[in-house]
Automatic annotation (TrEMBL):
This is Gfo/Idh/MocA family protein. Residues 26-104 form the Gfo/Idh/MocA-like oxidoreductase N-terminal domain. It holds the Pfam family GFO_IDH_MocA_C3. It comes from the Bacteria. Gene3D superfamilies: Dihydrodipicolinate Reductase, domain 2, NAD(P)-binding Rossmann-like Domain. Residues 131-235 form the GFO/IDH/MocA-like oxidoreductase domain.
């Protein structure tokens, strides 16, 4: 089995490869020489392609797609032409223009795009009775200080990678949609720079959500943090439930990276995506709407 890594634009494909290499031969294409060299130091046996077309011409059994968001719709269109399953690292779109470009593609059940947290052991088995739910809250704690120094500036730029609101906010929205379904809309959003003055976006943010059933929800994004952790609180009339997702001793397992790759390999074996595109589309709509509603606020 051969898995192609189409792009190394974020940290995620490097992490994905550590699990994939136990199951498959790897092929890789990346535009940035430094990022490619870093990958090859860890995976010297991987086959290197000079372009996305050349990579796809090797006829891989599956593709992990991770390119800068502005390039993502065109790259996904190329992969879809091959018919092989694709795991598109989050977020699949970070602006209205990008989302509309994805809407023009024929995306079926051979595309998986998700926050890895959906497959974290602490969360994957959770089931709710929506009729018992009053409201929900997801809190994302993930430091974004690396962007303040200029690292991967496109991710921190609202019109390109969406900034903290989108790139980190996806984790919280993903978890809530996984629990309550895709009939959700953004009710409001706000963001601010409270600590990292060099950012193009924000280091704190909040979204208010509402489902068609009337359930309300909140996503908090804390981008100034000494640790990485994600929590979901479900409020019911009888009290509620508190779910905590942490890296633990094995962050690949604890944060859901391994589970996501296992789900993708199931698609390589013929299974449909375990995350319907309807859910992914709803998550992207919330994120893009939040970005539009909350332009970055200068530090003070």
């Amino acid at each position: 089995m051969r898995i192609a890594l189409a792009g190394l634009a974020t940290s995620h494909p490097y992490t994905d490869a550590r699990t994939l290499t136990r199951h498959a031969d790897l092929a890789v294409w990346e535009q940035d020489g430094e990022r490619l060299a870093r990958f090859m130091r860890e995976h010297p046996g991987a086959a290197v392609a000079g372009s996305l077309g050349e990579l796809l011409a090797t006829r891989p059994d599956g593709v992990v797609l991770t390119v800068p968001n502005p390039q993502a719709p065109a790259a996904l269109a190329g992969v879809l032409e091959t018919g092989v399953p694709v795991f598109m690292n989050k977020p699949a779109a970070a602006s209205r223009e990008q989302l509309e470009a994805l809407d023009r593609l024929d995306i079926g059940d051979r595309v998986l795009s998700t926050s890895v947290l959906r497959f974290a052991p602490a969360f994957a088995g959770v089931r709710l009775d929506p009729g018992e739910v009053l409201s929900v809250r997801a809190t994302v704690r993930h430091d974004v200080g690396m962007w303040a120094g200029g690292y991967n500036a496109w991710q921190d730029t609202p019109g390109q990678g969406g900034g903290t609101m989108v790139t980190m906010g996806v984790h919280g929205v993903e978890l809530l949609v996984a629990l309550l379904g895709p009939e959700v809309r953004l009710a409001g959003a706000a963001g601010a720079v409270r600590h990292y003055a060099g950012l193009r976006s924000e280091d704190t943010g909040v979204m208010a959500l509402q489902w068609g059933s009337g359930i309300t929800g909140v996503v908090e994004i804390i981008g100034v943090s000494g640790d990485e952790a994600y929590t979901v609180t479900v409020h019911t009339a009888s009290g509620g439930e508190h779910i905590v997702i942490e890296p633990g001793e094995d962050h690949l397992r604890g944060l859901g990276y391994e589970g996501t790759v296992e789900a993708f390999l199931g698609m390589v074996g013929g299974a449909p995506s375990p995350v319907p595109w309807e859910q992914t589309r709803a998550i992207l709509e919330v994120l893009v709407s939040a970005r539009e509603a909350a332009p970055a606020v200068p530090a003070h």
